[in-house]
Amino acid sequence: xxxxxxxxxxxxxxxxxxICKLGFEKTDTYDINNILxxxxxxxxxxxxxxxxxxxxxxxxxxxxxxxxxxxVCESVNLHFKSLTKEQFVIQYALWFRWTNCSxxxxxxxxxxxxxxxxxxxxxxxxxxxxxxxxxxDVYLLIGKDCPFLLRDLLASEQLAVVxxxxxxxxxxxxxxxxxxxxxxxxxxxxxASPQEIPAKYCAMLLFLTAGLGQLLQKYLxxxxxxxxxxxxVIFVSLEELDxxxxxxxxxxIAEELVKLSSFVLKAMLPxxxxxxxAFKQSRYADCVILLLPQLEVGFRLLFTTTNKCPNRxxxxxxxxxxxxxxxxxxxxxxxxEEVNQxxxxxxxxxxxxxxxxxxxxxxxxxxxxxxxxxxxxNLEAFPREVANQIVAFAITLxxxxxxxxxxxxxxxxxxxxxxxxxxxxxxxxxxxxxxxKQVLECMKSIHLWPELPTVPEEHVETTKGLEGNAEASTLxxxxxxxxxxxxxxxxxxxxxxxxxxxSVLTERLLIALCDTYICTLYSPRPVxxxxxxxxKISTQCHQVSEQVIASTELRYKQWMNKTxxxxxxxxxxxxxxxxxxxxxxLRLILVLITLELVNVHLVCKKNPFDYQQYLKFLKxxxxxxxxxxxxxxxxxxxxxxxxxxxxxxxxxxREICDRKLMLMQLxx
Length: 668
Description:
By secondary structure, this protein is mostly helical. The chain is built from 32 helices and no strands. The longest helix is centred in the C-terminal third of the chain and has 39 residues.
């Protein structure tokens, strides 16, 4: 890993030329008054004249455009430096309101006054993400589904209608096109070091954003439209994100580690130091924005070293657009079908990969980088809890990829708890993990049933129903038979054989089964398809439970207040009888789901396995639970039909068990 010392740039020569040199080739001075009117409006025609087009197809000639716009950018930068903060606010603050984050753009102005390279890069990353979000809001004035990628957004007809195609072409020179400066991507993916981003490009984007605000105001006045800002994403259940401990002593050690760890490219060291400083200053969004690209750089360094493709450490050329990003680095195979060697060099490959998938990729996870880079998060309200985890995770990587003479750091009493947590990390947002959570939540709901208020037992017993008749005995017998077949696949310390229904179908058993480790990395398609259906079944079961709870509480109140008609009273008593049998059936289904989940990976590795046939069975169980939702709703209250349906479902489950088609049976 000595490569971390020798690499001075992650920009390939052509990309580095475009960003660092091309816009400086023209040295002539450009008069700011050419593009800024006396009343402070951006003269867009004068700006767009600097965009050049290819003669062949009239598409943007990005190279010539960057060369031509270079002096304009320098003029804008000098203009901003000549203004006081008060002058800037008076002249420009109004035109940033359309972004819904005016303060951020005023903050960027402050940064430009001092030209600290790390702060300029940070300001540019925040500016581009907020600008993208604001442009998406403008897009929705006309369009319906806002494009996810910035390049598609900038190329859209909708924005061309509002701002004009020539204006959008100016923006695409700076951001959104891999043929242009592509400032957003080279920063957010960690390719550019602080000193490689000219401050004048940040100044120009600040200037253009104000100009866009002026154009938008004219459009809104003409069309009588109202710009509506989409709400920010709010992180919920922050306790689920609380994985690693972090304290001031760990941060102090981290400041030493970044200078020594082979995970850090020396050219990127200022970003690391700035991130740790931001965290200590409670600037949590800044900390994470600075740190995420550096984690990607570190993993890219590991990836390219272990897979012996050092050239891929650099930015991808336009003709080789398969750049090395997290999707590729975390994949099982490389794009040439060879096995990815990165997991093999990680001491805890599962931990590192599962954490990254959890926090960055899984749809039900926080997807921190996507949401930050696309402007979906209110930076002022960014939660400390999220920053805590990213910083702590980064420290574990700094420790892991350090020289042998840094043993003292790794064994430091402040760091050991962190490393211990890292070694036992398990995915929290993979569909398999979410299913486990769903099952346990559903079981908690069903366990509330015995505590529900109910009428005296003698009223229930006098109701013509299942209890005491042959149908009731048949249901109990089938449940007992199915449990008997499943017991060999259950942890033995979680039940007793005296009362199989009450002792086996318990929350304790489900917790024990859910504690079973299941590798979520590289889950094959059959596994994910099966998990999708299992999750739907669990969701329906939970819905049934919530409906039973609501109906029971309501009917009890009505019974006590004597507001039920005769038929309603009979139906209520019928419900009380039915749910005595429905409870073990739902618990049985939850146990089945969990047992199947534990074995799904193992079985899907076996050949042949007709998982389509198995899916057909699961979908029949899903159909049963969906019908249960309908029959147990307050609108239907069809309890006779519920029990008939339950009887048929149990027959089907018992048949599948008899035919040894359950995953747990196939796994043995």
